[in-house]
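ASSEMBLY PREDICTION REQUEST
Request ID: AP-0331
Submitted by: J.K., bench scientist
Number of chains: two
Total residues: 940
Priority: normal
Notes: Please return the full assembly, not individual chains.
Input sequences:
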Amino acid sequence: MNMQKIRNFCIIAHIDHGKSTLADRLLQFTNTVTEREMQDQLLDSMDLERERGITIKSHAIQMKYPYQGEEYTLNLIDTPGHVDFSYEVSRSIAACEGALLIVDASQGIEAQTISNLYLAIGHDLEIIPVLNKIDLPGAQPEVVADEVMELIGCKREDIILASGKEGIGIEDILNAVVEKIPAPTGDEEGPLQAMIFDSVYNPFRGVEVLFRIFNGTINKGDRIKFVNTGREYEADEIGILGIQQKPQPQLKAGNVGYLVSGIKVAKEVKVGDTITHVKRPCSTTVQGFENVKPMVFAGIYPVDTTDFEELRASMEKLQLNDASLVWEPETSAALGFGFRCGFLGMLHMEIIQERLEREFDMTVITTVPSVQFRAMMNNNEYRTVNAPSDMPEPNLFKHIEEPYVKVAIITAADYVGPVIQLCMDKRGQIKNQVYLTSDRVELTFDMPLVEIVFDFFDKLKTISRGYASLDYELIGFRQSHMVRLDVMLNGEPVDALSAIVHRDKAYEWGKRLCEKLKELVPRQMFEIAIQAAIGTKIIARETVKALRKNVLAKCYGGDISRKRKLLEKQKKGKKRMRQVGNVEVPQEAFMAVLKLD
Amino acid sequence: MVQMICRELVLRKNYLPKAQPIQTVYFGGGTPSILPAAQIGEIYACIRENFDCQLLETTLEANPDDLTPEKLNALRDMGIDRLSIGIQSFNDQVLRFYNRSHTAVESLQAIDKARKAGFRSISIDLIYGFPHADHSIWQKDLAQTISLAPDHISSYCLTIEPGTALGVWEKKGKFNAASDDFQAEQFEILLQTLDKADYLQYEISNFARHQAFSLHNSNYWKGVPYLGLGPGAHSFDGKHRGHNISNNAVYMRMLQKNKLPFQIETLDKHEQINEYLLTSLRTIWGIDTAYLTEQFGWDLRKERQNILADMLGQDLIQVSSQAVILTNKGKLLADYLAAKLFI
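STATUS: Completed
Returned structure:
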């Protein structure tokens, strides 16, 4: 295949700006899918993705498009649209020469879009701006076009007006892809140099690796090597991605394809890694490889302690197709055996939790999410703190450092005040304030990561009436006065409720947590003291009074079986309670911290 | 309706085990006293025609304002020997809140008339747990009750059901139910006051002098079979519980077609044990542990050894060689404790 007839591109868009629908239209227009094969939002194949309306894992698809008498090969590389997966996005972008920038004509540009756009511009991608949903009554193509022109420095006539829903502008987009996006360059004869930008787990075939070839040629049966992991494989099957996979004997520089080589575990495939030949390896790897590091940590425990082994099996299966999920066994006095898990972000954590429930029928208790702190020990060595229980004794360390992020928020000018207030409350320092248009502002803050891990995004949405958008990137560690806050029930510490919080916030946190627990812990035969403490110092206390009365007044003919059923049901519910010392704690209590407000 | 109840009775005359003659009849649940005496007599006669009866007790639940001397005489003459009068309170304001059509004066008159008519046993119903500022009205109700010296008292805590007037007010925020603690205090006052007045608490909500226990109600708690007739009535044949459709119109329509409006629920062994635990624990006789072992092959003392020891330590139960019985402290938590013993 002639490299000049290949175009590799991705789509940059905010959630809900219609990326998936537009992608569907491109596939239909190029006859890549027939009507019969068409499912709504074809590229999002996991149920969960479809329901959330976002693409969690990226995929790729190849289209054939005839243009001025020649057939072009268009590789569309799909990108996830959430900040938790920004590294995957960066690798998808690195696999392309161009990008469609899709902006909702009624919403305008969002923070996430801008950061991905900058990423694309940084990789020298040709940007094709598209205003989507122009058919909607609320569309303001003029205003949003101004915003886009300002941002990427294009001309008004470069912006394509489209509607995925109505099928408007689809041909214009395809023509622009061919005309404007440069063909890939590379040496078909050189040593093989390809980049993994995604992987898909197939329970029958093992891990399918998606890659982009920059130089050289790969043949079926070649002996290949993943440079960063150092592992070698046989290229059992290679091919291109249509709606179904199409095996090929050979793929050359410039193209995008898949590889099957009997890899059983997703961990062996690292996005960003370089594929080369064992015999004639390339001299340089593809730049930008990183080991993805989890940002958020939380304990996951089975609701029923006897389900631990089953949970382990489920987690292992999940990890087969989600290499970014990391975990190790953990024991809690209150919750028994479970796992300390690392996630890319809060969305990733929710997804894992939901997948455990849906795909494996496991109900789990998730403990207070935290981030990775580090303690500077007295011997000047760092110790990693992933969980409150990892926190060393105060006399053993000099100080604690916590991860900071640079946060970008785009909001309507009306909400700038409340947004700044919120970020200050979250220990943020404002760094920059830019008016994108007369009523849209980009605000930049330095903030502790731990502060945005919790409810931050929900709060931001609430105070900005749903309009503010958020992006963040890690900028390093800073020294902070963090303390471990413990919760005790009748003097017994409940390890699963401990949290690492900033000293200035510990009192407020402790007070609210105690109040919340008072609502959730049922009255028992004795009084229960709920206390929050830093070290040995009690900073908050609530009391659950002893149960005094639990008896139905009337118990004659019909009351009997009604009451029996009610009590049997309550007793069943009790089995799901956890015993802390002599106190029975319902599982909701362990989630209480997630809903503090 | 009376006709249909009689028809149901005939259709179900074989429901109860034959060996045991019928000893008690209870007209109750709702206010059967609004029926003319003749209609009550019709049902009563029908019972005696269709069953082997050796009646020891026949009770009628009555509203104070339904009881005229003529009606009382007629009821007495047909063989009703026990009245359970729904006094609820001697405070007119509270009675209006409860949506009762009678007054305190009518209550006093009703008791007087019933006595004159010569009923063997008179029971008074009282409700506590109304959210007053203090307990004085409840104490007055109890003092008034004791001065009337009925041989039986049933006293229930106010429960607010959704859909009732109080339930609707509560939902709209016009009415705040009393706290559990407040209600618990009133229950304790009830126990102390009636104990001083020589009433024996033979079940959580029932008190009697001179062994004037309600035979009929006691049988519910001892697991004796019973047949319930009429819309919404519950029955128990020893192994199965069942109930009639409660919609009056549907009940009548089905019986007109000679169909029984009855739904059966079979209890497995565990459910039978749990019901026995729940009901027997409420009584002065307690859980008969030998009965459990004989009847179900389940040894409570062995199976629940630790829980019983714990309850004993907290002064919630007394354990004798025959039975497990609640202390006064335990009575307030009867349901909680029963559930702990459930299997």
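REVIEWER COMMENTS: Chain A touches chain B at residues 525, 545, 547-558, 560-561, 563-564, 567-568, 570-571 (CB under 8 Å).
SIGN-OFF: pending second reviewer
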